[in-house]
Amino acid sequence: MSLIFSLANSFLKSKKSRTILSIIGISIGFMLLISSNILMSTLEKSNENIVEEKYGNYDLIVGYQKSSLFLNNSDVDKINEFDNVQQTSPFLYPYIGKGNNPYKKEIEIQPMYVGLKNDSLSKEHEFTKLSSGHLPGKSEVVIPYSWAKAKNLKIGSKLTFPFPPNEEKTVCVSGIMKKSEHLHSVVLFQYDWLAKATSQNNHVTTLMIKLNDWHAKGQVINQLKEIDPNFFIDRQIKMDKEREQLGGLKPVVQGLNIAVLIGSALLLISTLQMSIQEKKKELATLRLLGAKKSQIAWLVISESVIIATLSAILGVIFGIGISFILKGIITRVSGISVENIYIEWHSIMYSVLLGILITIVASIIPATLASKLSPIQAYRQSIDTEHKTRIVLPAISVCLVFLSVALSFFNYIKIHDPKIYILSAAILILSTFVGISFLLKCTVKVLSFIIKPFLKQYSLLASRNTIRQLRRSIQIAGVTMLGVIISIVGISVLTTVRDTTEKSILMKYPLSHVIDSNSEYDEPGLPLTFYKQVDSIPGVKSVPVYKDITVFTQNFDKSNVKKNSKLMLYNVNKESEVMTALQGVDFNKMKNSLPLKVTKGSINTNELNQGGVVITDYGSKVLGYKLGDYIKFIRDTELNFKEDKLEYKDEKSKEQILRLKVVGIIKDYPMQEGPDIGIYTSPEFMKKRFNIDSINEVYYKILDKKSQSDIENKIETLIGSQPASKVILYNRQTELETLYNQFNQRVAILLSCVVLICLLAMIGLMNGMASSLQERSREFATIRALGSKTKSIVRLTLVEGAMVTLGGGILGVLFGSILLNQLLLSLDNNSVTLPWKMILICLIITPIMGLIATLIPALYLSKRDILKELSE
After folding, report:
1. How many H-runs (helices) and E-runs (strands) does the chain carry?
2. Distance CA 430, CA 581 (A)
3. For the residues 157-171, what does the mean pLDDT come to?
């Protein structure tokens, strides 16, 4: 074996330039593998620190949402004994929850009382982020920032609170919370002091939990449910989502790493095939001297091991180096502050071994070809003549392409199953592997015919030379094709996902801001006076969304339901009915701020006040109600649920059935995402009939940008003055910026990968053309001796190189476009997409790549001595 390695090393040294170029190309693949590994580890670590800073360094909160239920000391001890639990901290909510609260009248106008301990874990909670002061001790309280501003309170101010069943107590302000849109009505007390003040000693309403590893969250949740299946568990979903958003980059990066490794493997195959072609006589001599076929194969594999090992060493060195260089760029692209680079050596070693294994496996193809080489044929012919393709493979490839397209088309017309689109895409990818040689040959011939009027004899000679060297050209065209497919599919899919998500955000927030009461279904929302105060602020245009009620139809015609309809029906008094919502809408306000198209009838306030209703086009189509029809329905509170069916509570419930006339049909209700079967009337009717006039949400936009800061402060003050502690303020721009940031991250990574793949293709083509031109130097010398100019030789080789990359580019565009639509259709995109800009860019760049890569070998060939070449 040592002799084989020694011989392989000698062969590689004999062609230093080609070996160096191959090592550079493959080391680029390793460099990307290592640098992406390091940068992903760094981003994950930095993002974890940011997420913990934003949401707190804890993983779960478990407990109850009623003060009548609580964890006792035994429950807390059990939880602390869990293997994955690192630390816990108790919280007390003495008056939380709905139901039979004996102190409701005394407490309902008060903020939410929270008792907590002054320990390291409780300080991770959002409540404990203070703008000034310290956490409460005995007879002390921490108040919200909005309270301090609205009531002019300071550290040391005295406040009196009721603590039923005990007497009122006066406490001192020890701290003021940080400014937050979520915390407007929460006050903090010292845990033991509050427990004693409310006579709730040893009560733990919720328990804050820190785990050893957040990935074990699911296991711990299952253990908690064994203690009490009715536990309320806050899983820190938002925190996990932010972790997953960065984690979502991992599959992208890993997929692109695989693509680059495939490109590196193709480059290695091309290199080894060139080596075999140049050493045909030497290999034949070894065979005649007694070398076995297996020894010839091992010789080629040994060359790949040497190249892969040297490439891996260089890739690790440059990968680590470029990680430090790119630290600042990654910070700007990802939006994550990166202070230090984190290197996980075990992960790097795994990546290196995987890369070496892939490149060695890739060498099996040329090794097998070398072992089958006939010694007699090798002596007769040292130049690779036209690569002959078996008839069977092209036929299979063409059949697979047609099968893939036909299957997708049939699925689009009839079945609509995403899995079939994925299967079609897999068949298409298989067809490229089977028939790339035949496809490239056909593409080169078509290109020759197209450019013939412009380049005359050069097109014919270039196409013939390309086809003669087809075995070498396949890998280079394959790498180019891979880069084009990744560009078209990757960027188009990312753009489609971005546009779809952007549209969803704009539909969710039709105006720039939303104040959400965050109230339960049966809880009152924000008072109407609150909305009027917001609407009265100069420079603000707002639209109220009133609380709705759940109703069930009483005259629904089941025959209107189509066979494949997803409409859910309920058994109401032995009749199939539909559940929907009845909501009051201020249509006049809505028209002033949002597009509202009436398709049939009209929206007349007087008619709505008298019991008229408005439905959407979709609701009319699905429910079967038309303009002028009467919709009969009953409120859910008049029904009882028994044995999978709904029944009237009593005989009086029948008297509560409403009969409302459809006076208008609108195209869409602007505040509702997706299909809408809601029923809309006037706020006045809802107030008169159901005594409902509270606000669920307030949508608004700021018209006066100069006064934006003052307007935001006024709105926050109004929110802070509300007794409800759950009011949330959403900003559409923040959501959009997060979306654009994620899109830019992924596009930057994708383009970086494509650039490296293109570089691999250029290195491979430069290497291949240098070898090919060297073998054909005598042929070119003869052409020059017959009168051809040096420029003509250079032009011929440049056209040949451009044909290889452009052929790969055209195949990449063709297969990439089909693959793109198959993937988009699997994601419920209902139209065929052709990314013309990306296609045009790819068709321009790919021939330029070929020209650049071929230029140096072509110039070198043009300067060779004709007499010397002819005499050899």
Report:
1. 30, 24
2. 51
3. 93
